[in-house]
């Protein structure tokens, strides 16, 4: 997945890129304009010097051509071979030209009059050095402009996205019971206000939804616990009836255990429905819960020709609500029993791990990645696809690590690791 940078960083990069592009275009334009102006000035200077010398030559045939540090004039008289002129200058047509003599660049102006050949050379070495310095200034200016654009972009991006940052912080600090009011009561109406109003509308709907869910959970808890209490009370009364046979007393005991398990399950599900994390100071005896779960499914395992054994030699103190741990153990053991026929299920529990190993038909490799998804059911499953999803949800809430390994016809091993 491609990593996305922050909005402020992207705005700053956009400003830096814009500043760099504009600086580059401006520098290139200035560079070529400076070269053109420089060449035009040299050509005008050469032309003026050449015309001045030809005018002086017309007035005084003995006038000498100019000879300075930058300008060097030459005269080739009519009827001669022009040996006094540099060789490249002898064949140049009239006009302005670029030549090199002895690795020195020159700008040359050539003119002819009455058979005489006039030439003036301008030494461009100093001009080239000035151009190089000027080019360095342009590069430094472009780099400085890019840097200033970046800094300005960071500052401006911070100012631009400050309302969005404040909006995100307000939403992040908000609790489900106290949604914030994000839209401003007064002030300019802009895109941020429109976004804030959209958030307000959404948070209002969300708060109403949370309130409906909380009301439903409280009502369901009350309405379900009441009949369960009645069932348990009736079971206790039946258990005290001396006229019941042993088989009937066993059935009454099963009804009472089922009512207790249902009450624990309701408490666990309501605990999971809360937004806040599970209290860390609540603990339970893991061995006792594991023993109860194993005994509950021993009869079902025997009906399928399987044996069910528990290895938990000592008391196990777990920092977890007993109802949640009971759901985890019960679902794992039930799944193992449901998928094992004429085999063996081994449950192991210690201070660090809970292990449920069976010799059933196993799970195909392509199904392993989906077993903890809600409503997922394998080809051999007769359940609703809720049990392992609920187990994974409880493990995520409690910080437990769960690992499932399985081989076709080799059985399945589920290992749940508790934090140290």
For this entry, give a set of tags:
Heat Shock Protein 90; 420 residues; 16% strand; alpha+beta; four-stranded antiparallel sheet
How is this structure best described in words?
The chain is an alpha+beta fold and 420 residues long. It has three domains: 7-147, no CATH class; 191-265, no CATH class; 280-417, Histidine kinase-like ATPase, C-terminal domain (Heat Shock Protein 90, 2-Layer Sandwich), CATH 3.30.565. 56% of the residues lie in helices and 16% in strands. It contains nine helices and eleven strands. The strands form three sheets. Strands 6-8-9-11-10 form a five-stranded mixed beta sheet, with helices on one face. Helix 4 packs antiparallel against helix 5 (246-273) and helix 7 packs antiparallel against helix 9. The chain is rod-shaped. The chain starts with 6 loop residues before the first helix and ends with a strand. The model has no long low-confidence stretch (mean pLDDT 81).
The parts where pLDDT drops under 50 for at least 5 residues are none
The domain count comes to 3
Query: Based on DSSP secondary structure assignment, what is the total number of beta strands?
Result: 11
Sheet with most strands: strand arrangement: 6-8-9-11-10
Tell the overall outline: rod-shaped
Mean pLDDT across residues? 81
Termini separation:
33 Å
- Beta-sheet strand percentage? 15-25%
Rg from alpha-carbon coordinates: 47 Å
Based on secondary structure, the structural category is: alpha+beta
Report the major sheet. 5 strands, mixed
The share of residues in helices is: 55-70%
Reading the helices and strands in chain order gives: HEHEEEHHHEHEEHEEHHEE
Number of helices: 9
